[in-house]
Amino acid sequence: MFELNDLLLAFDFSPSSKRALAYGADLLQRTDARLHLMHVQEVPQGPFQREPRSPVPTYKLEEEFEERCQDALSAHGLDADDRLTFNAERADAVAPALVRYAESKDVGMIAMGTHGRRGVERAFYGSVAEETLRTAPTPVFTVQSPDDEEAAASVERIVAPVDFSNPSRGALQQAGRLATIYEAPLKLVHVVETPDTPSVYGPESPTVTSHKTKEKAETALEDWGSDLAGGELTVSYVVHRGEPAPSILRSAPHETDLIVMATRGLRGVRRAMLGSVTEEVLREANGPVLAARDFPTSD
């Protein structure tokens, strides 16, 4: 059984972080977890940056943060919950501060809203969510701002991309545990990438090869899903041909679809040039995404 003891939620009062709070409140109702609300006041540092002459003391920051949170918490019935912890601090960057706190408190999950950047701006600056995802010691739950502010923050289906690697096996086990918590069906997805082959191979060879691979993948996918939760879960399987990220997104078109997947994060110039399937899914998904470099696996 999946036990979530501590959930760290980055809260900056933006629409996406308020939506993340709604999902966090739902998890608190379904588990015995404690919720750590954290606000990071970003203070850039460098040779041309100066600290304010009279910065507000940290304890005062936390008092103000807790007070500002009350309306949002009341909306989810959490204003009197004794499982809440408030933390506010100054830091030169948000993601490292979140990761340090997560490590110090041994939290089981980080939740946050995301405002994914694109193109050149993203290549240089990235996003807080993506940086947290690449460096966090624990799974990261991300959600974007809703198109409809009244949309329910609920999970009605778990979608688990599987590439038959060890990291994706760990993600699948986590997806099965969450499907039990949410009492939701689980959908396993595998993508067979269509190979680029020279024309001299003949027009049919890639199609024939891809078709045979798809059949093998369908069998393997059912084998991977057969032991989940002792067969108590409702599990479906789909194998797509095409590019991984768009195929995964087509398999989870709804705001109530939770995608659970593993990533090992690329860094530096190589990441800026090639991107990452997980990061593309994170930026484009209609619903929440739970991702980690490595999910724990059970024997």
Automatic annotation (TrEMBL):
Residue ranges occupied by any UspA domain in the UniProt entry: 7-143, 156-293
SUPFAM superfamilies named in the record: Adenine nucleotide alpha hydrolases-like
Residues forming coiled coils: none
InterPro entries associated with the record: Rossmann-like_a/b/a_fold, Universal_stress_UspA, UspA
UniProt xrefs under Gene3D superfamilies: HUPs
Entries under PANTHER family matching the protein: STRESS RESPONSE PROTEIN NHAX, UNIVERSAL STRESS PROTEIN UP12
UniProt record similarity statement: Belongs to the universal stress protein A family.
Protein name as catalogued: Universal stress protein Usp
